[in-house]
Design a protein that fits this description.
The radius of gyration is 18 Å and the shape is elongated. By secondary structure, it is mostly helical. Helix 2 runs antiparallel to helix 4 and helix 2 runs parallel beside helix 5. It has five helices and no strands.
Length: 141
């Protein structure tokens, strides 16, 4: 799984406190960490085991996710969560772009690494969006 350089950056960011780019860097971390957690958790749920290759097996897993909702309702929940994740992803990208512009030295390198890692997150979010759309076809059809 891809994990942002975020946690290490926050721990190792001693010189960051004195840097004028701190606010943008922290904003990027704050927005990016939930994105990483949601993508990791959702990919593990959707793609767990060998059953992920069949939509039927994933629909069964979604059906079992909650006794109060159907698989189709769970798809809607995931799509709504994904919408929020995509907004946070945009916030993180914007903040790290600003940090990359405003920071210098090691802090600029850290901001760029996080920006690069967010490209993987964007791809992961797009993959999940397409997969959820393909599952939604089972509900609408």
């Amino acid at each position: 799984m891809r994990h942002l350089f975020l946690a290490f950056s926050l721990i190792a960011a001693g010189p960051l406190r004195a840097d004028p780019c701190e606010q943008h860097f922290i904003t990027g971390l704050t927005a990016g960490q939930p994105v990483d957690a949601w993508l990791t958790r959702t990919e593990a749920f959707l793609y767990a085991g060998l059953g992920w290759v069949t939509r039927g097996a994933v629909m069964d897993r979604l059906e079992g996710r909650s006794i109060q909702t159907t698989a189709c309702e769970e798809i809607t929940v995931l799509q709504n969560e994904l919408s929020l994740v995509q907004q946070r992803l945009l916030q993180a990208e914007r903040a790290f772009r600003l940090a990359t512009s405003l920071c210098w030295g090691e802090n600029r390198v850290r901001a760029q690494r996080n920006l690069d890692a967010l490209v993987d997150h964007r791809t992961g979010a797009e993959d999940i969006a397409m997969y959820l759309a393909s599952l939604r076809e089972r509900c609408d059809g």
